[in-house]
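Journal club side-thread
Mid-discussion, someone asked how the predicted structure for our own chain would compare to the paper's figures. Pasting it here so we can look after the session.
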Amino acid sequence: MPEIHDLGVVEVAKKARGFVAEFREFINRGNVVDVGVAFVIGASFKTVIDAFAGDGKENQGLLGGLLGALFGGSTPSFHDKTIDLNGSKLPVGTLVTASLNFLIVAFALFLIVRTYNRFRDVKSEPTTNELLAEIRDELRRSQGAKERDDAN
């Protein structure tokens, strides 16, 4: 009967543990968790935007209904709006709805990010030039101290 070492089980187990440890390290990085949280929040925020601006399909939303009522007929909807060009109908209403949705989402995200940036603690990282200046000053100080020690 062959020994376990001959079958390579030990090496496979070591590689599997290394893979699991590497995967755990990857998942525990802040970026992956932050992206996951942002995705979930974004998906839930989409329902709010759809209620306000419409989903681009049957639901016209509050804004779409208001604009459709102002500029449309008895059925306030942009989806039915078309332009006739040489016998072809161009569905501009769908484009208008999608464009409005995009602008509303972009503006809402801008406001959220702007508010977030105002409230978070901003730690300014030193620039490369500032770091080099600190190194230069430290070298000058240490050189001056060395010269004083040599003089004594």
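Post-session note: Residues 4-127 form a domain with the Non-ribosomal Peptide Synthetase Peptidyl Carrier Protein; Chain A fold (CATH 1.10.1200.120).
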